[in-house]
Amino acid sequence: MTASGYSVEAEGLLKTYGDKRALDGFDLAVPSGTVYGLLGPNGAGKTTAVRILTTLIRLDGGWARVGGHDVSTEPRQVRRRIGLTGQNAAVDEIITARQNLEMFGRLFHLSAARARRRAEELLEQFTLTEAADKQPKDFSGGMRRRLDLASSMILAPEVLFLDEPTTGLDPRGRSEVWDAVRSLAEGGTTVVLTTHYLDEADKLSDRIAVVDQGRNVTEDTPAGLKRAIGGDRIEVVAAEAADLPAVAKTVARVASGGAEPETDAEERRVHAPVADRVPALTEVARSLQDAGVTVEDIGLRRPTLDEVFLTLTQQSEDKSEAKSEDKEESAA
Amino acid sequence: MSDTLAPEERRAYWAVVDCWTIVRRDLTHLVKQPSLVAWQLGFPIVSVLLFVYVFGSSMDVGEGVEYKDFALPGMFAMTMSFGFMNTAIAVVVDKERGVTDRFRSMPMSPSAVVTGRGVSDILHAALDLAVLAVIALVIGWRSDGSLLGTLYAFALLLLLRFSLIWIGVLLGLLTPNQESAGNLFAVAFPFAMISSVFTPPSAMPDWLGAIAMWNPVSATANEIRELYGNPLPLGDSWIEQHSALMAVVWPLIITAIFLPLAVRKFQNLSR
């Protein structure tokens, strides 16, 4: 826990590769003890941000503090306080799991005896005791990832960075890693994870920043993000396709701000945003019943994170396109 | 125990301890997969058997020299020159798996990643030479030189291998992935073969012979033949007359050029 209450703080991070701006004014504030998701499409700058915060690459502008220490001027202090699990399981495949953990322990400058004890603890914590003396090259993807996580936890870091921790894992491997991350978070570790799996960000994170084109577009709790993007929607599935126009007309009456209901003919689904949730639902249900329309399903639905994500990244694209059009106009 | 040291002393202390931790890891690799040593030595052994027993009968290196006395020291030098491939591949594997990044994100001594590689490669090369020397003895090769001269010859071989570590580290960092590391063989093969390893450069076309004579591998190969007391037919060009000097100077030049380049490339990973 740092004085500010934030384990990771960054402002205006810049990183350019040739003409390309990988990070373009990236800000971040991760409250201590939370799981923080960086969500964005490939190439959005998530990995670049993590590599700067873990002292692997230098920043070209802005500043960042991790665990209360500046990544540019005090990299050694930062390295004592972080764990990193990158996109590949960064373990030695040939020496055993135990030897891996002991080696990393020694490189974290633990004594031989303490490194051995710590390896033992971590093997147990990540349920690898049975595989302790096997080579990681024979491990499943999930096991290798758990060993990777264990290697990041040698010094019980204040902040653990996970860069796409479940990419390439089967569903079982993913849930193994999720369980491990959750239990680390319960133990008080601040976790910063990047992902392009929306369900992963949704399930694991206390807060999420949506990253696109080198900056974060927005930042909120998963529920807050969903609320911000347009609130609840009413959704009606008609039994007969022929009833769809009638259903749409009824739904239109309750839609907030006179929004036009959207109709998905293939799934016989009509949906529209609503402000007053339950009264709207009751009214639609009653009117449809009065009109003799058979309804297969009716309900209120929060938007999924997919929709939030697509809407937000779409908006930021539109904005930057508008900006470049402005430039062209002013040039003309 | 390091707490009583001054900051610079502590840094030096950890640079050594961390280097040793990395070396221990690489030695464990050798213990865990002894077949790897066999594979890496397979090529020089097979080629020397081919040259000595298949082509050897028709090889005339001149002045009544037995071909195997010419070829076996050549095999030692060739194995050392192929060694940069082992370095490069080890560097690529660590880079590709993310192990290098893990090291770099840890509070360990940054230099240990490179020095650890160097020390393990030299130990590995010494093991290679020991195995090859036994095979050579079985085939019937003998060093007629003094004990000191023979030991000095092995030291020169390791010096050549040492200088090539830095080419290996540099190429490993420049190579995108393990698959393309295999292409380095296209560099290693002519580098080792266009030399005096298996045939005297004087028997080659003039232009090729000149390249072969000036190849650093030739200087080492010629000098160790001298030291082993395996008489050798040499031309009277300056380079061939000064192999004693050049067997030391070449590795120093290579190190002076490629050590800084490799270190800079390593530091530039943080760009």
Automatic annotation (TrEMBL), chain A:
Q: Where in the cell is it found?
A: Cell membrane
Q: What class of enzyme is it?
A: translocase
As for membrane topology, the entry says: Peripheral membrane protein
Alphabetical keyword list: Antibiotic resistance, ATP-binding, Cell membrane, Membrane, Nucleotide-binding, Translocase, Transport
What is the E.C. number? 7.6.2.2
Q: Name one GO cellular component term.
A: plasma membrane
Q: Residue ranges of the ABC transporter domain?
A: 8-238
Annotated coiled-coil segments of the chain: none
The answer to whether keyword Membrane applies is yes
Enumerate the Gene Ontology biological process terms. Answer: daunorubicin transport; doxorubicin transport; response to antibiotic
Tell me which family the UniProt entry assigns to this protein: Belongs to the ABC transporter superfamily. Drug exporter-1 (DrugE1) (TC 3.A.1.105) family.
Return the protein name.
ABC-type xenobiotic transporter
Q: Which organism is it from?
A: Streptomyces boncukensis
From TrEMBL, chain B:
One term of GO molecular function: ABC-type transporter activity
Query: Which stretches are transmembrane?
Result: 36-55, 75-93, 114-139, 151-174, 181-198, 244-263
Q: From what superkingdom does this record's organism come? A: Bacteria
Q: Name one GO cellular component term.
A: ATP-binding cassette (ABC) transporter complex
Q: Which positions fall inside the ABC transmembrane type-2 domain? A: 35-269
Q: Which UniProt keywords apply?
A: Antibiotic resistance, Cell membrane, Membrane, Transmembrane, Transmembrane helix, Transport
Q: Spell out the protein name for this chain.
A: Transport permease protein
Membrane topology, as annotated, equals: Multi-pass membrane protein
Family to which the UniProt record says this protein belongs: Belongs to the ABC-2 integral membrane protein family.
| InterPro entries reported for this sequence | ABC2_TM (IPR013525), ABC2_TM_bact-type (IPR047817), ABC_2_transport (IPR000412), Nod_factor_ABC_transporter (IPR051784)
What Gene Ontology biological process does one annotation of this record name? response to antibiotic
Principal localisation: membrane
| PANTHER family referenced in this protein's UniProt entry, alphabetically | NODULATION PROTEIN J
Q: Where in the cell is it found?
A: Cell membrane; Membrane
